[in-house]
Write a structure and sequence with these properties.
Distance between the termini of chain A: 37 Å
Low-confidence stretches of chain B: none
Mean pLDDT of chain A: 92
Structural class of chain B: mainly beta
Largest sheet of chain A: 6 strands, mixed
Number of helices of chain A: 0
Radius of gyration of chain B: 13 Å
Mean pLDDT of chain B: 94
Oligomer: heterodimer
Strand content of chain B: over 45%
Number of strands of chain A: 11
Helix content of chain B: under 10%
Distance between the termini of chain B: 36 Å
Largest sheet of chain B: 7 strands, mixed
Largest interface: A-B, 20 and 20 residues
Helix content of chain A: under 10%
Structural class of chain A: mainly beta
Number of strands of chain B: 11
Order of helices and strands of chain B: EEEEEEEEEEE
Order of helices and strands of chain A: EEEEEEEEEEE
Number of helices of chain B: 0
Radius of gyration of chain A: 13 Å
Strand content of chain A: over 45%
Chain lengths: 108, 114
């Protein structure tokens, strides 16, 4: 079993749609959780940290479920500019382990 | 966050040669890492660059193939030695911001081995 697993997608959604990504992790001792966004041929950029209480930043909401060992990212009112690959990352002892990423394509 | 630069941004190299990639950060950071991202795949951690001591390598990566230097808290190099086409990849350095646990990436070095 992979340490961090994501549905690779692609998720093709129309503008304005709400889309959710899930990510599961295998190490119950994982300490920190993040979502990154990666555009084609660019480096990953930190989108959000994921806290136990969940957190929201504009149209983006991230949640953590420690009991079931998954994190989620919800994007509301999708924009064309949201098209990218979304990577979840889980850390244990300062090392980040990445999922394979979920590709999102928002169409007009 | 941190401003991270890498040199070179890209290179095309012949098999059997070596390439050294530089990573410079605009502030002192404790934790610095080197990752590889092969086409269409996610990021794989190569090693943790330790200041003043030998790097800590992940399974499948060895010092002879990927020697790493970390002379101070703002700079590191990764060398890809005796390259083969399988080494064609994007190599990224990243740093952890103390106190936040947040990790930021450099722009990457796109390496093609012919």
């Amino acid at each position: 079993r992979k340490e961090v697993e994501q549905d690779p997608g692609p998720f093709n959604v129309p503008e304005g749609a709400t889309v959710a990504f899930n990510c599961t992790y295998s190490n119950s001792a994982s300490q920190s959780f993040f979502w990154y966004r990666q555009d084609c041929r660019k480096e990953p950029k930190l989108l959000m940290s994921v806290y136990s209480s969940g957190n929201e930043d504009g149209r983006f909401t991230a949640q953590l479920n420690r009991a079931s060992q998954y994190i989620s990212l919800l994007i509301r009112d999708s924009k064309l500019s949201d098209s990218a690959t979304y990577l979840c990352a889980v850390s244990f002892t300062d090392k980040l382990i990445f999922g394979t990423g979920t590709r999102l394509q928002v169409f007009p | 966050s941190a401003v991270i630069s890498q040199k070179p941004s890209r290179d095309i190299c012949q098999r059997g040669t070596s390439l050294t990639i530089q990573c410079q950060v605009d502030s002192q950071v404790t934790m610095m890492f080197w990752y590889r991202q092969q086409p269409g795949q996610s990021l794989t951690l190569i090693a943790t660059a330790n200041q003043g001591s030998e790097a800590t390598y992940e399974s499948g990566f060895v010092i002879d193939k990927f020697p790493i230097s970390r002379p101070n808290l703002t700079f590191s190099t990764l060398t890809v030695s005796n390259m083969s086409p399988e080494d064609s990849s994007i190599y990224l350095c990243s740093v952890v911001i103390s106190g936040t646990g947040e990790q930021y990436f450099g722009p990457g070095t796109r390496l093609t081995v012919t």
